Amino acid sequence: MDYKLDQAGIFITAEIHIKDNVSLAQGLAAIRQFCADMNSEPGCSLAMATQHKTNPKQFVFWERYDDQAAFDAHFAAPHTQAFINAGLTELKQAFDYQRLATEE
């Protein structure tokens, strides 16, 4: 799979926690489906969740979008809004970066 990690784009890192009142199984199912949905978005070349080794309800998402329009479309997508509105997780922090420009 070509993730385009060596190309310009928007790189997102987000820390997500499954809420205390949500079962791990329910949260995992939602996160797995959300990642699958993100990976089907045009302009998203990578969406994956990594799980903390000792706190199984804590995750870091890594995402890469071709450009700002693809990133904006991600938030407008029905599956993104459904994931957010389900209220199973909470966003702890997020970072929005771009690839370091090469010297000109």
Automatic annotation (TrEMBL):
> Residue limits of the ABM domain?
10-100
Q: InterPro entries, from UniProt? A: ABM_dom (IPR007138), AI-2_Isomerase_LsrG (IPR050744), Dimeric_a/b-barrel (IPR011008)
- Its protein name is ABM domain-containing protein
Species, as recorded: Shewanella ulleungensis
